[in-house]
Specification:
The complex is a heterodimer of chains A (about 160) and B (about 100). With about 160 residues, chain A is α/β, with parallel strands linked by helices. Chain A has helices spanning about 25-35, 45-55, 115-125, 130-140, 145-155; strands at about 1-5, 10-15, 60-65, 65, 70-75, 80-90, 100-110. In chain A, a hairpin with a 2-residue loop joins strand 3 and strand 4. The longest helix of chain A has 15 residues, at about 25-35. The chains are: A alpha/beta (about 160), B alpha/beta (about 100). The interface of A and B includes residues 96, 118, 128 and 129 of A.
Amino acid sequence: MFEEQDALFLYINANVDTQQQSKEGILKEVLKLIQESSSVTFDRHEVYRSVKEREEISTTGFGEGFAIPHGKSSDLNKPLVAVMKLAYGVDWEAMDEEEVNTVILLIVPEENGEAQHLKLLSKLSYNLMDDEIQKAIREAQTDKALHSTVQAMFTEL
Amino acid sequence: MKIVAVTACATGVAHTFMAKRAIEDAAKKRGHEVKVETQGATGIENTLTRKELEEADILILATDIKLARSERFENIKKVTIPVATAIKNANGVIKKIEEKLA
């Protein structure tokens, strides 16, 4: 599901249907999925390059099966948060060496996006450390269930 | 105990806040008072006051970089650990501190 909110765009997919087995493959594919169901248009290749650049500095593998890749888009006027659960785990060079099966991708506007970006990322990394939130995301089987958990994580923005 | 901490990471902001949460949760779970200052890409947030630093039993510096305004931390009983250690094992760090200070 894709929805536009006051502060951000939200894309939720509790069952990503993909055969991709690498981090790069997953990133490319989910960007395509997001774009296809999105009400805003953005250049997904630009976003991919920016996300990839960030991954090369250091992994965004969060641990506990989560990854929080992030990048920029010059087409967006507010951040896009995409929360996606994969059927299989993918290697993300995470700190705890666990495979990743939940990808939380942040795409922020290229222009004046820095402050928003840091705020989103700090909120996300803080809240995602919560065992209860991790559990709720892990147990969410539907977009609807996943949506309410994600919403709670970003509410105070 | 009264625990104060500062978290800071090299690449930006995520690890700083992951470490903050890990220290807060571990300290509270073990029955301590805790306040954590962050020095991320957004600057200093939740700044520790002089009074809080003076009253603290221990200061945890969880950092991979040189901290800003570090003169505040002189002459205070402290432990310095990598950010990753705080994220992975804050509970163990605090347990060790309890043993040392007991």
